[in-house]
Amino acid sequence: DIQMTQSPTSLSASVGDRVTVTCRASQNVHNYLNWYQQKPGEAPKLLIYGASSLQGGVPSRFVGSGSGTDFTLTITSLQPDDFATYYCQQSYSTPQGFGPGTRVDVK
Amino acid sequence: QVQLVQSGAEMKRPGASMKISCKASGYMFTGYYIQWVRQAPGHALEWLGWINPYSSSTVYGREFQDRITLSRDTSINTVYLELTGLTSDDTAFYYCTRRGLSASMDLWGQGTLVTVSS
Predict the structure, then answer these.
(1) Residue range A81-95: average pLDDT?
(2) How far apart are the C-alpha atoms of B109 and A96, rounded to whole Å?
(3) Rounded mean pLDDT of B3-15?
(4) What is the DSSP-derived secondary structure letter of residue B115?
(5) Rounded CA gap, B27 and B6, in Å?
(6) Which of A31, A51, A98 sits opposite B45 (nearest CB)?
(7) Residues of chain B with C-beta less than 8 angstroms from the C-beta of A97
(8) How many C-beta neighbours within 10 Å does residue B55 have?
């Protein structure tokens, strides 16, 4: 099975900050890497699919990059609505594993 | 409106079985796989398996292989998740999701909380 790791586990940031979350796969997943945002008490929401494609309706401040085993989610200017937990997920092979999550909270 | 609506919360005893539903609306039901994911409270997401509503073919996560069944009823655009031999480790929110581009999960149900307790 492909193992997914994320760093950092959590981070504190302020509105307007540039925030970067890193995801690493234990094997090559090509560009089958997706990012989700989850707020407390809610289902996750797809932000980025195929490593770098923005899901419809998602603000352009969310940017995905990477290929192979190393990926990055960048929030170019953090907004109040962005305080949440972010998960990466590989969809290259089953089981489709998720990373452990990165919690972004208020500094 | 494009949505997935799941059945309500359930409480089960250890050793029992659960069967929860996910009703799709607003899009062509047989055109998209449905995947199931679960999340124990305070934990990360865990993939359970998927079903092709058109053919009813399924793929299951290896650790659930012997106690999970995904099925569908195309007459009512609904997919079902059945899990047997429940233990307290199965206490979680269960989500159905639609498989989109790059096999991502582009549409989520609201989640069904299943609590396993004696």
Answers:
(1) 96
(2) 18
(3) 98
(4) E
(5) 16
(6) A98
(7) 47
(8) 10
Residues B33-61, mean pLDDT to the nearest whole number = 95
**Residue B5: what pLDDT?**
98
B55-59's contacts with Cβ under 8 Å and 24+ in sequence apart are: B59/A94
Collect all residues from B whose CB is shorter than 8 A from any CB in A. Answer: 35, 37, 44-47, 59, 61-62, 95, 100-106, 108-111
Q: Show Cβ contacts of residue A107 under 8 Å, excluding neighbours closer than 6 positions.
A: A12, A13, A14, A17
What mean pLDDT comes out for the span A76-97?
96
Question: Contact, A30 vs A39, CB < 8 A?
Answer: no
